[in-house]
Amino acid sequence: MEPYVFVVAGFGALVLFTAWLPMVLRALPLSLPICCVGAGAALSFVPPLAGLARYPAEHLPVVEHATEAVVVISLMGAGLKIDRLIGWKRWATTWRMLGLAMPLTIATLAALASTLLGLGAASSLLLGASLAPTDPVLASDVQVGHPTEGREDEMRFALTSEAGLNDGLAFPFVNLAIALAASGSADLSLGHWLAVDVLWKVSVGAVLGALVGRALGWLTFHLPNVSKLSRTGDGFVALGVTCLAYGIVQAVDGYGFVGVFAAALALRASNHGHDYHRKMHDYAEELERLLMMVLLVGFGFALAGGGLLTGLTWPAAVFVALALLVVRPLCGWIGLTGSGLPGDERAVIAFFGIRGLGTVYYLAYALGHAPFEAPDLLWSTVGLAVLVSIVLHGVTVTPVLRFLDRRSGRDTESAQLDLVLSPAPGP
């Protein structure tokens, strides 16, 4: 029997799991990504499929563009569901995580990679920049709820807004690593990097993305009633907004990730309380979940059958443990010092810096644009970091948030679930 038949049947099962598994896992300390990776690893041992597993480096363009697609869709969904209007004080926690915690994380991870793994400046910086951002795809369990629900505690808001912006803001450091690998530090102009890769591209992404979102918001909500595009009721409009914003920003050499998130925020702000935002968000979330499951099954397939971890060393395993358990939590805690948040909420924001498909995208993108030393070690280290993050954060997120919600008296879905699952008090 041809492997194609198994692939078709497997995809059908995957679509069903996309719809059913979240309901089954609500009460369990598990997550959808854990199940997807496990399913992919198991499939790699099925005889008709075993020979299909491939090492990611053999198909860099496919890996790059597949992960790119799911990240940009995730960014649109994240931007649409944030109820809080953007502002300096209202987003103070986010600015702390982006301006303090993230650069500190990149620098610390780069130094650790150089010391512990013996990598040069370019590869160390690439590893630090790839592992620093919180993944918007896998972080849905720690993000705010649907649009207009009004249940945005500071923890979930901080993690949602951080994930929406730090993927784009990691790009300047990835580009710096590419420049180092391509030309060497002797020929590198930090002034040019700061002016172009940091100031220009970030500004273009934010401003142009916001303009695209505002223009599409006017077309959607503010045309005469007979022509209002929101009357279509089609959620897939979110996909069109995502692709248009990303394509326009990339075309003028800005950061498309920043542009998509800015477009989503501007679109939401154009008519903040309209029910149509919920429909667009739900479509983006469903599409994101389906693509995420496909890619994570592929990730598990590559782990078990594609040799993704063949370049792993003990120092690399120690590096991953330090990155997830020490560096990110410590840098996040430092970034939030003086924020006025309770200690437990600071700890949650600092700890749940989930690594995922955005990390894989950055590595594939960089390796496709410049020659880096020890690429197998980079792939294995990133692969292990993503795997450990999926398992560690996936197992802990439900009980931790449920406990904090119940203790704080927040009327959230996790708190309500906790009350349902808790045994009734005795007489």
Describe how the helices and strands are arranged.
Blueprint: H1 3-25, H2 32-43, H3 47-50, H4 60-81, H5 92-117, H6 121-131, H7 154-169, H8 171-183, H9 190-221, H10 237-251, H11 256-270, H12 276-305, H13 314-335, H14 343-351, H15 357-367, H16 375-408, H17 413-421
Helix pairs in contact: 1-12, 2-12, 2-16, 4-7, 4-10, 4-11, 4-12, 4-15, 5-6, 5-7, 5-13, 6-8, 6-15, 6-16, 7-11, 7-14, 8-9, 9-10, 9-11, 10-11, 13-14, 13-16, 15-16, 16-17
Mass-distribution shape:
globular
List the secondary-structure elements in sequence, H or E.
HHHHHHHHHHHHHHHHH
Major sheet size, sense and barrel closure: none
Strand content: under 5%
Average pLDDT value? 84
Unreliable stretches:
415-427
Name the helicity range. Answer: over 70%
* Rg of Cα set: 21 Å
Helix vs. strand class: mainly alpha
Q: How many β-strand stretches? A: 0
**Tally of helical segments:** 17
End-to-end distance, in Å? 62 Å
